[in-house]
Specification:
single chain; 0% strand; mainly alpha
Length: 145
């Protein structure tokens, strides 16, 4: 199963956007999928505040597993992960108009009215899966570099 298929499947099973994207990459970087789902649990819907899109944070966690610094003094890994983070966010914003959840949704999901608007307009079921797919594809591309 591809990363895109797995992230879509997980999102369809009601895992949040961050969980779905991060877990789709976890096994190849030595993280059990169940652990990845738990790690991503608090990052969906822009950390429940409409901030950075959860699909993006999930992808950034996966990119961190590939490129992140884990040794004291490893400046090369730090620079690489910083660079990959910027590239990811710039590409996601270029393709989708923003990487901020509330801006993508066009409503403030910190409010009851914003959540109601998103539900009524099927944003969580029609727009968010597209963001999960986009984040997964961009991360996949950057991981292959």
């Amino acid at each position: 199963m591809s990363h895109v298929e797995r992230s879509a499947e997980l999102f369809g099973l009601n895992f949040n956007c961050a969980q779905a994207v991060f877990a789709s990459f976890s096994k190849e970087f030595g993280i059990d999928e169940k652990q990845a789902l738990k790690i991503g649990g608090c990052f969906g819907s822009g950390m429940r505040k409409g901030e950075v899109c959860g699909a993006c944070t999930g992808a950034l966690m996966a990119l961190g597993l590939k490129y992140g610094q884990s040794e004291v003094g490893d400046a090369d890994s730090k620079l690489k992960s910083d660079d990959v983070c910027v590239k990811f966010l710039e590409e996601f914003e270029s393709k989708n108009g923003s990487y901020i959840c509330n801006e993508l949704l066009g409503c403030d999901i910190k409010t009851k009215e914003g959540v109601e608007y998103a539900v009524e307009n099927k944003l969580f079921t029609e727009l968010c899966p597209k963001m999960v797919e986009s984040a997964t594809l961009i991360a996949e591309k950057l991981i292959k570099e």
